[in-house]
Amino acid sequence: MPASVRVVDPDEIPEWDQLLEPFPDSTFFHTREWAAILRSTYGFRPRYLLLGTPSSHRGLLPLMQVDSWLTGRRGVALPFSDTCSPLTLTAEALHELVAEARRLAGDAAWKYLEIRGGLEKIEDARPSTTFHGHILPLVDDENHLFKQLDSAARRAIRKGNADGVSVEIQHNEEAMHEFCHLLALTRKRHGVPPQPDAFFKNLHRTMISSGKGCIVIARINRLAIAAGLYLEHKKKALYKFGGSDVRFQQHRGNNLVMWKAITEYARRGFESFDFGRTSLDNPGLRTFKLSWGAQERPIPYFRYDCRTSAWTTVPDRSTNRLTPLFQNLPIGLSRAVGTMLYRHVA
Fold it and tell me: How far apart are CA 39 and CA 331, in angstroms?
């Protein structure tokens, strides 16, 4: 590689957080913490491309090498990230990073290189898959935020309050256990195995327990009925996961959890609230996110096939023929399957 491009590991650069400062589009997924969570949970190898000199960085492309006997070796920016665009300040820097990523992919014998967002200015790159993204600008004015909601969201919040649902913000292990139980119930309904327990333990140890994120729980009669997990970077909040018990859906716990998170981050001076990615085949979730007054944008993924030396398309596999199987598996068995499979499907 040219002298201006280095392959680095964020864990070996003490000033990594300062390195992200010049790039306004940096997200939680670009941080050292997210790299540490992915490596410690799944054993992925960081292959981050850093463009520039040690004293002046012009661009960054986070990459993880996924080695799998089941699905092959490839590079992903980044596994299990909703979006993780290259960070650059100029079009020239973007082209340099992508060219070096393609060269690295060939040298490392990857099946493909996947970059989640940010290549719209690369002339020959076409999206492999596209998702919806939703971001809500925040202001410290609860009345203003409430007026932005659509009528269904306002009714849901009023209904939950009238039913006596309480909502709390937590950072402890007990809250994480409650959240994981509700998430497992939701994943079962959707026909998808839950992530490994180790992933959430690492997420709690690295982020939640240190106040770089939180768990919001809705309760009725002290029973947890809905919960959301939120992460933070600079003045940006990210909704990463949510779960609920469908038996209590009429109490609108999901709506109160989201409203509590939005108003709390607004009160703390955060500038934006990211709802994460949504499949184009999930109109219900899209409607839910739009109901908060969020601004919609496309999130294109790009995949470079190293065997054909061409950008290619792939189907959105949000649902597949295994969905009915996981809907009927006991939660304990589904957890075991998730523990075995997630590192292979990154």
Answer: 26
Decide if 46 contacts 9 (C-beta within 8 A).
yes
Q: How many CB atoms lie within 10 A of CB 248?
A: 19
Return d(Cα 289, Cα 82) in angstroms, integer. Answer: 15
To which H or E segment does residue 169 belong?
strand 166-170
Helix axes 253-267, 151-162, angle to 10 degrees: 100
CA 341-344-346 angle, to 5 degrees, is 110
| Phi–psi pair at 308, nearest 5 degrees | -105, -5
HSE on the CB side for 293, CA within 13 Å? 18
Q: Low-confidence residues of the chain, pLDDT below 70?
A: 1-3, 54, 319
Residues for the chain: how many in total?
Answer: 346
Which of 212, 186, 209 has its CA nearest to residue 31? 212
**Nearest in space to 276 (alpha carbons), one of 29, 14, 25:** 29
Contact call for residues 155 and 281 (beta carbons, < 8 A): no
- This model's pTM is above 0.90: yes
Residues 58, 142: Cα–Cα separation, whole Å: 39
Report pLDDT for 59: 95
Helix (H, G, I), strand (E, B) or coil at 100: helix
Angstrom CA distances, 138 to 103, 146, 212, 320, stand at 41, 11, 18, 36
- 290 token code pair: 């739009």
Alpha-carbon Rg for the chain, nearest whole angstrom, is 20
